[in-house]
Automatic annotation (TrEMBL):
InterPro entries referenced in this protein's UniProt entry, alphabetically: Znf_LIM
Name the record gives this protein: LIM zinc-binding domain-containing protein
Source organism of the structure: Strongylus vulgaris
A Gene Ontology BP annotation from the UniProt entry: cell-cell adhesion
The entry's keywords: LIM domain, Metal-binding, Repeat, Zinc
GO CC annotations, alphabetized: focal adhesion; stress fiber
Upper taxonomic lineage: Eukaryota, Metazoa, Ecdysozoa, Nematoda, Chromadorea
SUPFAM superfamilies: Glucocorticoid receptor-like (DNA-binding domain) (SSF57716)
GO MF annotations, alphabetized: metal ion binding
Record carries keyword Ribosomal protein: no
LIM zinc-binding domain segment(s): 62-131
SMART domains associated with the record: LIM
Keyword Nucleotide-binding (UniProt): no
Amino acid sequence: MTTGFWLTNQTPNTVLSALNRNYHPACFRCTGCGICLDGVPFALDKESQVYCMPDYHDRFAPRCYRCQKPILPDENTGETVRIVALDNNYHIECYSCEGCGLKLTDEGDACCYPLGKHLLCERCHIHWRRSGAEAPISDL
């Protein structure tokens, strides 16, 4: 995976050189949506197919298990921050108790207490286990 490329705007009679090939500036296009990539940041997949950054992230970024949206790099740092729990990826803001909605952390009363494949806070975990419920209970 290679990311972070962009090309400068070219004059009409120039040839654009990218990835060891020459293109008319208007012919260098995103594999996904087809937009012209002249002057636009782009990325490559494993097969060296070229994508605009929105299409690249939509196709290849890890998806949040809770909201199913791609987990994107931070605009300022370029780092992708995610939480992995029960072999699933989560946005930080989506990592919450399925019973009461409490935002889960790795410390204190907001620690995650999984039960089966469900993310629960300690209170919901205890209540759910005692009740023998099949799904998180939200009316505590």
